[in-house]
Design brief:
Elements (H helix, E strand, L loop, with lengths): L1 E4 L2 E7 L4 H18 L19 H18 L3 E13 L5 E4 L7 E6 L11 H5 L7 E4 L20 E4 L5 E6 L4 E3 L8 E12 L3
Antiparallel strand pairs: 1-2, 2-8, 3-10, 4-9, 5-8, 5-10, 6-7, 6-9
């Protein structure tokens, strides 16, 4: 599903992968994290790419995610590179507001753990929810002119909250400010970050 969060876009999908796949992905990437962790902050880690073939199950996730990324980009562009990283947070850790336009053009996040989606209920009403560990995607900072609290009649919400259910993939312009509320669980919370560079077709 592609969401128009004027002036940016976001994509949100359930990949529908088996719980056993996500559990194996979670356990594999926790092992990677134990080796690559270089400090207490979540960004303190050695440079690495989980999609380089060293983590076979991560490459499987890559293959499942890429059709959705292609849907998001549309016919006027294509992926030229994608780097994968694991992001691990313990209880009480949040991700502060930031943008990643210096690192990539498009970002995607996959959640291999979290509450299960209820297939009998509306998808977007479950996903678009505020709460502990919720992920927020915001419009670019042009709103900081002093009119940031004001929305024009044609504008959709400037902030979109996403409850991180298991199997959820989200994608968004790396220029968009994003952050995540503190995590309150006991076991480490892991999500997969896809840093994607995109090239326009025909200019």
């Amino acid at each position: 599903m592609i969401l128009n969060l004027f002036p940016t876009h976001a994509g949100v999908w359930s990949l529908g992968l088996d719980p056993s796949f996500d559990q194996r992905l979670y356990e594999s990437l926790l092992r990677v994290h134990a080796v690559m962790k270089a400090g207490e902050e979540i960004w303190h880690r050695q440079k690495h790419d989980i999609f380089d073939g060293s983590v076979p199950i991560a490459n499987e996730l890559f293959r499942y995610a890429m059709p959705k990324i292609a849907e998001f980009i549309g016919p006027n562009g294509h992926v030229i590179s994608c780097q994968g990283r694991e992001v691990v947070r313990n209880r009480g850790v949040e991700i502060m507001p930031h943008a990643d336009e210096d690192e990539c053009h498009l970002q995607a996040v996959y959640f291999p753990i979290g509450p299960e989606l209820d297939k009998t209920n509306d998808f977007i009403s479950q996903v678009n929810a505020y709460g502990p560990n919720a992920f927020a995607i915001c419009n670019p900072d042009w709103r900081s002119s002093g009119f940031g609290a004001m929305r024009m009649p044609w504008e959709t919400p400037g902030k979109f909250w996403i409850a991180p259910h298991r199997g959820l993939l989200i994608a968004f312009d790396a220029r968009a400010v994003h952050f995540q509320k503190p995590y309150h669980g006991e076991a480490p919370f892991l999500q997969v970050l896809l840093n994607i560079k995109v090239e326009r077709i025909n200019g």
